[in-house]
Each structure stands twice: as C-alpha cells, then as structure tokens.
Write a structure and sequence with these properties.
copper ion binding; Superoxide dismutase [Cu-Zn]; superoxide dismutase activity; metal-binding; mainly beta
C-alpha cells in the first residue's frame, strides 16, 4: 500500500491518492479538490520529488521499460500512464481505476522514488513522450502506507 498527499503549485492541499497492489494490478483511488474543471492528464512520474511551482523535479513519466507514451500506443505504454481525470464544475474529482500495464506498488519505490502528477490539459493517449498534457498543476510524492 502506498499513498501520495497532493499539493498545488502554491503548496495548498489538493487531496490524497492511494495505491493498493492486487492480483489484477494496482488499484489507484483518490479524492482531489480545488482543481480547474475539465479533463486533466494524470500520471505516475519517475522521481519522488515535487518542488513547486513547476514540479519539474518529478522528472518524466514512470517508464522503466522505455516504451512509447500513451494508452493508445501500439508499442505499449509507460507504466505511469493512467486515465484522464474528469474534474467537475465544483473543482472536485473522486476516482477508482486500475493500472494493469506493468505498474506495481513495489516498482514505485526504486532508488529515487515516484510521484503522481495532475496536468493542465487532458492526455491525448498517444503523443510521445507526454500525451500533450500541458503544464503540471498538482503533485504528490508516493510514500509507503500501512
């Protein structure tokens, strides 16, 4: 089990995301608020750092197998590629999804850790390496949880 406490670029709490290993993959659950309404790309990133305001210290998408980006990519996809989030007009989103493409809770705790990122735009599920997801608006370092 792992979790990430997510903050925006101003350091305000946005919510929490949990990661639970199952036989079918990783169950990713979260409740986030104070986000702009609309679709937002959502990824696990390769480094466990979230230095505001741009969160560039999180690195790129978690991609230990060096695959192309995107759920629709015919050559596979990054382990950190997750479905877009749909944020309501009230700025809130609650979600449950499965990561079934190589991501494991254990793999997120490599030597430099991992983080989870919310982007300004939706992921187009194809453009390599970022899905044309735009800037980074919220980030959380993945930590071990009981």
């Amino acid at each position: 089990m792992a979790r990430a406490l997510v903050k925006d670029a101003q350091g305000k709490d946005v919510g929490e995301i949990t990661f639970e290993q199952t036989k079918q993959g990783v169950l990713v659950k979260g409740t986030l608020s104070n986000l702009p309404p609309g679709q937002h790309a959502f990824h696990v990133h390769e480094t466990g750092k979230c230095d505001a305001p741009d969160f560039k210290t999180a690195g790129g998408h978690f991609n230990p197998q060096k695959k192309a980006h995107g759920i629709l990519s015919p050559k596979g996809r990054h382990h950190g590629d997750l479905p877009n989030l749909y944020v309501g007009q009230d700025g809130r989103v609650q979600f449950d999804t499965f990561a079934q493409h190589g991501l494991t809770v254990k793999s997120m705790f490599d030597k430099d850790g991992s983080s989870v990122m919310v982007h300004t735009k939706e992921d187009d599920y194809h453009t390599d390496p970022t899905g044309d997801a735009g800037g980074r608006i919220a980030c959380g370092v993945v930590e071990k949880a009981e």
